[in-house]
Amino acid sequence: MADKIDIKNVAKLASIKLNQEEEDRLKNDLSMIIEHFDALSKMDLPDDKISIHPLGMSLNLAEDIASKSLTHKEALSNAPESKDGQFVVPPSLD
Amino acid sequence: MSNYKLPISKINQLFKNKELKPSELYAETFERAAITESIIHGHLELFQEENLKKALNSDKRYEKGKNLGTLDGIPIAIKDNINISGYATTCSSKMLSNYISPYDATVITRLKNEGALFTGKTNLDEFAMGSSTENSAFGPTKNPWDSSRVPGGSSGGSAAVVSAGSAIASLGSDTGGSIRQPASFCGVVGFKPTYGTVSRFGLVAFASSLDQIGPITNHVEDARLIFNSMKGHDPRDATSLIESKAKQPKLKNAKIGIIKELMEDGISEDAKKEVHKVAKLLEAEGHEIIEVSLPLTKMSISIYYLIAPAECSANLSRFDGVRYGNRVSGSTSSEMMELTRANGFGPEVKKRILLGTYALSAGYYDAYYGQALKARAMMKKEFTDIYEDVDYLISPTTPSDPFKFGEKSDNQLEMYMSDLCTIPANLVGMPAISIPTGLSSQGLPLSVQIMSPSNTDNTLLDFSESLESLVAFTEEPVINGVVS
What we know:
The complex is a heterodimer.
Chain A: H1 7-13, H2 20-36, H3 38-41, H4 72-76, E1 82-83, E2 86-87
Antiparallel strand pairs in A: 1-2
Chain B: H1 8-16, H2 22-40, E1 43-46, H3 48-63, E2 75-79, H4 106-113, E3 117-122, H5 156-164, E4 169-173, H6 180-186, E5 189-192, E6 213-217, H7 220-230, E7 255-259, H8 269-284, E8 288-292, H9 300-315, H10 333-344, H11 347-360, H12 366-386, E9 392-396, H13 412-417, H14 423-428, E10 432-439, E11 445-451, H15 457-471
Parallel strand pairs in B: 2-3, 2-4, 7-8, 7-9
Antiparallel strand pairs in B: 1-3, 4-6, 5-6, 5-10, 9-11, 10-11
Helix pairs in contact in B: 2-3, 2-5, 5-6, 7-15, 9-11, 9-12
């Protein structure tokens, strides 16, 4: 299965532009790691139990009450680019 | 014993008796840092000037007999993936090299309320992904015991500064052993609490179902003190636990299981010897030692390296050059994001994001991520069942003593195996502590790890304190022969 890694597609899904050297190295590294997963992927495990939360707890959601939070200025304080109180990004389409 | 190696309760007593002032200890800590930092590079940033006033305020509180808590005036170092308002939080990544936090993590708020002072931010593997600090974008931290060796990771900076005496204690974060493994490599105590007992609000997320903040200290009692100052429900973290009662393990005549699978191939003779030495000491105290088998621990590396990268690929999607972090220009938003992430993330972070993306992608989800979640549930059951029979579990913290720089960096699987003994506690959520117990044949620190059922943290700490006094490990590093 590992030799079938389409590294260009995985990088696209992850939104990371890779150069040729990185593509070659990462394809090799990932193949090696995934090969290590073989024993686990072949294990016969019951389908009815999975663990997402380590203690099996449900999430404790906060009450929906307005409380003190970051100010508009604070929220924008680390923005690479902002204008008129908003984040600025390049166009979505060419 | 130098002031910087005293237990915090003792320092607090000196403050109260007016035999030492917080500002004097603060100055002493930075004098020490001035010598050690050029060798070990544990701190990425030191806060000396900014916090001097706070140290003087602490002096005044003690003069009036109105100190805020036992931590008042205690210099604590903070791992640089935990936000302190007004300071950089870089996660040792180029991506966040200019990021200044506009808020405090909950643990920081709670330590500030106790009067703790912060020495600065400590080095880590980029975004806490690594076991040696070799993945830091700002250069590695050196092990205070031997600067040709790694301090462990990812909280390598936090462990090294406590070991070297340039902080009384520190905070780290532990996703697969990132508190305990560096604590072991640096000869100090590292405690990972039960998942959810300490708020993760303000900790930059790596793998949300595994991450946990905890203390790195010189003494178990210091770990208990800091843990109890930080713990408790936080409505800003949905995974924060509302305190629940659990059956506590015994402190006297306890039954302790040595995990068979963590004493086999891949574990050094030195590390095994240390566990046997500790087992004998415990036996002499009236505890019963048995060997137990937890077969799925052998699968823990595979389970972890599917779950953690899957969660990291989702968590790190927020670093896209829009709201914070560095940006590389592009003609469209998607090109800007791809270039920003290509430029901002280092090789190990890219690898783990891609691994997680692959494991979650259509066609592979069931075979990899889905299978890992099932195996994690089975592993949880194995541990729950074993705790029906034993009070505590014991293993080496690390398979070997600290390795040399470059020794494992070309062999990714060997590097990942250095977390073999620590990962199970993250996967099942239980508390685990690393306690230094002796030196290897090369004169480097070795530790044992003690684990107990979830929500028995303070009992585990009490038990560990009694073990600490039995072992009586008092060795300190001589840093490059320069500092004694």
